[in-house]
Design goal:
This protein is α+β, with helices and mostly antiparallel strands. It has one helix at about 55-70, and strands at about 20-30, 30-40, 50-55.
């Protein structure tokens, strides 16, 4: 498991959207929140997760603040 230790807000890069859709699942317990992504159409998740992100409660709060700013701007 690779837990995110720091979130850096990049003000210089632009977002590059790639074509196609991605599936995601989430799971959490009292210590961690996890997001896993899968290729579009892999509803059974047979091909394995492309990316796994694990976040502590502290980082979830920080991420929530960024998401709130994104929603409100």
């Amino acid at each position: 498991m690779a837990v995110i230790s720091k979130i850096i807000k990049d003000n210089t890069a632009s977002i590059q959207i790639r074509s196609g859709a991605v599936l995601a699942d989430i799971i959490f317990d009292k210590n961690y929140f996890q997001i896993r992504t899968y290729a579009d159409g892999d509803f059974e998740r047979e091909k394995g997760a492309k990316q796994n992100i694990q976040i502590t409660k502290e980082k979830v709060i920080e991420l929530r603040d960024y998401l709130t700013k994104f929603i409100n701007d």
